[in-house]
């Protein structure tokens, strides 16, 4: 009799464990991100990290007070957005790059070698191009993203990026 009870207890434990594992797997499945959302996280993080680094370089290597102030604004705003993106990505089970890579790392390296008026010119030109791409990326994510959290983040951040683009364009027109 005790053998039958032990066997029944073991069966119930195994069943409970299996159901618990299944439920845990289902929770994880709900957090799986689409390829588009993963791409957005990677691109937005890479862009943001580069903007922070370049903003710091602008404060040191820039010639004009306007470029230095713009650099400070880029570092501040993008640091804040990067932290928010990282929090959301972790909640969704995604990893976020921790330093600029690829074209972003190359841009940081190249601009860090320049100073004065030449730096101001190239930095502001790059900021226009980068923010045009960022605005397009965030517009697309805010409308067509799969993750509601990332869509909301993109929609909330988009006006800041549009303002950055406007500022960068104004700086480039002054430098011509």
Written overview of the protein:
By secondary structure, the chain is mainly alpha-helical. The chain contains six helices and no strands. It has two domains: about 1-30; about 35-175, Ferritin, core subunit, four-helix bundle (Ferritin, Up-down Bundle), CATH 1.20.1260. The chain has helices at about 1-30, 35-60, 65-90, 100-110, 115-145, 150-175. The longest helix has 29 residues, at about 1-30. The model is unreliable at about 10-30 (pLDDT under 50).
List the helices and strands and how they pair.
Layout: H1 2-30, H2 35-61, H3 65-91, H4 102-112, H5 116-144, H6 148-175
Helix pairs in contact: 2-3, 2-4, 2-5, 3-6, 5-6
The tally of structural domains comes to 2
Q: Which homologous superfamily in CATH is the superfamily of the largest domain? A: Ferritin, core subunit, four-helix bundle
What name is given to the CATH topology of the largest domain?
A: Ferritin
Strand content: under 5%
The count of strands amounts to: 0
Shape: elongated
Largest sheet: none
Based on the coordinates given, report the CATH architecture of the largest domain: Up-down Bundle
Structural class: mainly alpha
Mean pLDDT: 86
- Rounded to an integer, what's the Rg over CA atoms? 24 Å
Order of helices and strands: HHHHHH
Q: Termini distance?
A: 93 Å
Number of helices: 6
How much helical structure, as a percent, in the residues? over 70%
Question: Uncertain spans, ≥5 residues at pLDDT below 50?
Answer: 8-30
CATH class of the largest domain: Mainly Alpha
């Amino acid at each position: 009799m005790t053998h039958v009870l032990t066997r029944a207890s073991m069966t119930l434990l195994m069943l409970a464990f299996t159901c618990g594992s299944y439920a845990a797997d289902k929770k994880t499945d709900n957090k799986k991100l689409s390829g588009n959302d993963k791409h957005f996280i990677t691109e937005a993080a890479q862009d943001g990290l580069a903007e922070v680094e370049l903003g710091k370089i602008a404060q040191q290597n820039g010639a004009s007070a306007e470029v230095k102030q713009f650099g400070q604004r880029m570092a501040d705003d993008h640091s804040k957005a990067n932290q928010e993106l990282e929090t959301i990505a972790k909640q969704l089970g995604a990893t976020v790059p921790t330093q600029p890579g690829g074209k972003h790392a190359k841009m940081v390296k190249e601009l860090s070698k320049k100073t004065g008026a030449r730096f101001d010119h190239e930095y502001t030109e790059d900021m226009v191009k980068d923010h045009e791409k960022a605005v397009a990326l965030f517009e697309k994510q805010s409308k067509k993203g799969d993750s509601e959290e990332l869509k909301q983040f993109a929609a909330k951040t988009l006006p800041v990026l549009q303002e950055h683009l406007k500022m960068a364009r104004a700086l480039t027109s002054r430098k011509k």
